[in-house]
Design brief:
- The chain has 5 helices and 4 strands.
- The chain has 197 residues and is of the alpha+beta class.
- Strands 1-2-4-3 form a 4-stranded antiparallel sheet, covered by helices on one side.
- Strand 3 and strand 4 form a beta hairpin.
């Protein structure tokens, strides 16, 4: 005897309803997540935008203040006193270009003479040097030749026209007889003390 069986799922409607609710819940959660993410991004953007805007405004204010200060500091020749003009003239006429002077001094120093040190004060360039005592050579002739070469050099004689021998002394160093000497290069007489540049 053949028997037929029918299986009826009474929960079919319930499953479909649950599936729809799950889909709705997923969609709702997705929308909420998107809105939260969008608000977070927008909030961050507006925060940094506000910060940048504030920096731009501060920079513009600083630039405006700086321009105002520069304009207030600017002077014209109407406010230059006689003393200011004398100082400007002194800067342009009394300054000494030492780089060229030192190169010229090195060129004029021969192998027989060595400059040990020098100083500059009140318009006087003092050169201190040594030379080896040699019976075959006259030390004072070497010094005179050195002074003459300095006088003939335009770089040195232009600012120091008066070059004179000051003093000398014999000495011994490491069993070698030497002659120590001093030569002064005097600046032009201006009635004012020159300043070192």
């Amino acid at each position: 005897m053949n028997q037929f069986y029918f299986k009826i799922n009474l929960n079919k409607f319930g499953e479909q309803r649950q599936k729809i609710e799950n889909e709705n819940r997923t969609f709702r959660n997705t929308v909420i997540t998107f809105i939260i993410f969008y608000l977070a991004v927008a909030g961050t953007f507006y925060y940094f935008y506000g910060q940048m805007q504030e920096k731009v405004e501060n920079r513009a204010k600083y630039l405006k203040d700086t321009k105002r200060k520069i304009e207030s500091m600017q002077t014209t020749d109407e406010f230059l006193s006689k003393k200011d003009l004398e100082r400007i003239t002194s800067l342009t006429t009394d300054r000494v270009f030492w780089a060229k002077k030192l190169v010229a001094l090195a060129d004029k120093t021969t192998d027989d003479i060595a400059i040990t040190h020098f100083s500059f004060k009140d318009g006087s360039l003092k050169l201190f040097g040594i030379t080896k005592v040699d019976k075959k050579k006259k030390e004072f002739d070497l010094i005179d030749s050195f002074i003459s070469s300095l006088k003939n050099d335009e770089q040195i004689s232009t600012d120091f026209p008066n070059i004179v021998f000051v003093k000398s002394s014999r000495d011994e160093e490491k069993d070698v007889d030497i002659l120590r000497f001093q030569v002064n290069c005097e600046a032009k007489s201006t009635g004012k003390k020159k300043r070192k540049r």
